[in-house]
Amino acid sequence: MPDRHAGDPQSHDPELTAWLARNALPLNGLDAGAPTGDLRPLGRVLRGVRVVGLGEATHGTGEFFRLKHRLLEFLVTELGFSVLAMEASASAGPAVDACVRQGAGDPVAALTGLGFWIWRTHEVLSAVEWLRVHNATRPEHGRVRFAGIDPQQCGDSLRLLDAFLR
Fold first, then answer.
1. pTM (2 decimals)?
2. How many Cβ atoms from other residues are within 10 Å of residue 67's Cβ?
3. Once rounded to an integer, what is the mean pLDDT over residues 11-28?
4. Cα 131 versus chain centre, distance
5. N or C: which end of the chain has fewer CB within 10 A?
6. Continuous H helices in the chain
7. Nearest Cα to 82, choosing from 96, 91, 72?
8. What is the domain partition of the chain in residue ranges?
């Protein structure tokens, strides 16, 4: 059955509109470091949740990644989340993890190693640098980890395997 609203920007579903009016909460901004009062209702929604997925409608759009950074800070500082897992090279992820947990290496080089252009942005770099600063004040067991979860870019793993076999 075709969608009766498809292609008609003036049509709307009154039930959906009413639900959104009752449940939508305005954000006070997109930028990390802002007060989190507007995000606090998420704490009730996420109570007991261990994994939160943050997607985007388009890769590389700055506003999505600015909001993700703000949400990352909230999830870590207010809700105790401890791992940032991204659709990025699993074999290059340890370099970013070492960067954010031990302060090792250059964050720009680590992000470049992830193999996808969408992670080589000022917004993602800002989030990685925030994690690095955040972790610097935490004991080892309390630091936020980074994990790449995409097997597509496996160059680092192949180099390690080659060195081992030689």
1. 0.81
2. 19
3. 89
4. 11
5. N
6. 14-23, 40-45, 62-77, 93-102, 107-112, 122-136, 155-165
7. 72
8. 58-165
Length, in residues, of the chain? 166
Q: Judge whether 41 and 28 are in contact, CB under 8 Å.
A: no
Residue with tokens 């640098």: 129
The whole-angstrom distance between residue 118's C-alpha and the CA centroid of its chain comes to 12
Inter-residue contact 129 to 100 (CB < 8 Å): no
CB 120 within 8 A of CB 57: no
Domain 58-165 has CATH 3.40.50.150: no
List, for residues 86-118, the tens digit of each pLDDT value: 988 888 899 999 999 999 999 999 999 888 888
Query: What is the tens place of the pLDDT at every residue in 27-69?
Result: 999 999 999 999 999 999 998 999 999 988 888 889 999 999 9
Do residues 150 and 88 touch, judged by C-beta distance below 8 A? yes
CA distance 147 to 100: 11
Torsion angle, alpha carbons of 19, 25, 27, 33, to 10: -130
Block residue for tokens 């500082």: 77
147, two tokens: 């994990």
